[in-house]
Specification:
This protein is an alpha+beta fold. About 30% of the residues lie in helices and about 25% in strands. Strands 4, 5, 6, 8, 9, 12 and 14 form a seven-stranded antiparallel β-sheet that branches. The protein has a four-stranded antiparallel β-sheet with strand order 7-13-10-11, with no helix packed on it.
């Protein structure tokens, strides 16, 4: 298992499919792959027509949006580094202490769970006595943060929103939110949260998904509000294990719903609805299909941590389903490593579909 010091020695990569696959068309609720205009017309013109894209003008508008998104992804690494540097120079945090994880920020119930997972003889069955049962398969709910921490973190995020500092979009499906690595939360907060607290839990709950060897992450906050994003379409994450914590504020409705793993045909899947309460986290497999229903009032902030295991994804990219074609990047990138250089062995486990 890697230690914190190992991160300085391991180089992480992105898969080349990042610029071409899983491009989300919000208006038509469709994820697409774009290699060329001819390929796109062949693969998607018919399905787009059935979803309301029936004119040449509409189709050309789709092509323009895709070209813009592809270019954004190509420039993402450079632009993100530029934003992070500018934020570090210009932005003055409201709560500087929040950028460094302290156990006082964590819920007592969560600390009990982690301490059990670290203990001799800990087992999945024993752990299930500490987490709340849910109707969704292998989705677990438990308190993560204190109410005071959630309140102060939202204050910090709103303070940043109102500043002149540049902001990046969390992902292609969320238009409102904040990338926590750009804001400076990665090294002092998210990395120790993953390594010291979340990985012991994931190791027991998801041994088949690389839960014991989560060695990188992408963390961001998403915001739902009236006149902004209200819901989130059915999707899966670019992660082996995902933590989703409800930070607040006051909102009504907006439950999450979970289906089967992405490899299971939609016709064979059944969804289960799950309530999400402030301070509580939902832990689930990244490749499990899920979404968020519309909020009907108020404002909702969620902290999302996509945790990645290079030992798993080095075998098969979770986004394109192929052997990853490595592309140079920065930071944790998309969590791939070069096995020929790092010497990391390939295990034979794969995330179970049940």
């Amino acid at each position: 298992m890697q230690t914190e010091q190992d991160h300085e020695l391991v180089k992480f990569y992105t898969c080349s499919c990042f610029c071409t696959d899983n491009i989300f068309l919000e208006e038509y609720k469709l994820h697409v792959r774009f290699i060329s205009e001819q390929q796109f017309r062949t693969d998607y013109r018919e399905v787009l027509t059935t979803r309301g894209c029936s004119t040449d003008i509409q189709f050309q508008d789709v092509l323009k949006k895709i070209e813009t998104e592809v270019e954004r992804r190509r420039q993402l690494c450079v632009k993100s580094a530029e934003r992070a540097a500018t934020i570090k120079e210009l932005y003055k945090p409201l709560h500087k202490e929040l950028y460094f994880l302290q156990e006082s920020y964590l819920a007592p119930e969560f600390l009990k769970i982690v301490n059990y997972c670290r203990s001799d003889g800990a087992s999945e069955q024993g752990l299930l006595e500490f987490v709340w049962p849910l109707p969704a398969k292998r989705v677990y709910r438990f308190p993560v943060f204190s109410e005071k921490f959630c309140k102060e973190l939202i204050e910090e995020l709103e303070h940043f929103e109102q500043s002149e500092a540049p902001k990046g979009r969390p992902n292609t499906m969320n238009n409102y939110g904040i990338l926590l690595n750009e804001l400076g939360f990665d090294q002092g907060f998210i990395t120790p949260l993953r390594e010291k607290y979340l990985r012991p839990v994931a190791a027991l709950l998801y041994p088949d998904c690389g839960g014991h060897c989560l060695d990188s992450h992408k963390a961001f906050v998403v915001k739902y509000a009236m006149q902004e994003d209200l819901d989130l379409s059915y999707h899966y994450d670019n992660a082996e294990v995902t933590l989703n914590v409800s930070l607040g504020k006051e909102f009504t409705e907006g439950n999450l719903y979970f289906g089967d793993m992405r490899q299971v045909p939609l016709s064979d899947s059944e969804c289960a609805e799950v309530e999400h309460h402030v301070t509580e986290g939902l832990l689930h497999r990244g490749q499990q299909m899920h979404g968020a229903l519309r909020i009907s009032s108020g404002q909702r902030w969620n902290l999302i941590v996509w945790m990645r295991a290079s030992r798993e994804r080095n075998k098969l990219c979770p986004m394109c389903g192929k052997k990853p074609r490595l592309v140079e990047s920065q930071g944790f990138a998309a969590g791939f490593t070069d096995d020929s250089q790092t010497g990391i062995f390939q295990n034979t486990s794969s995330c179970a579909l049940t």
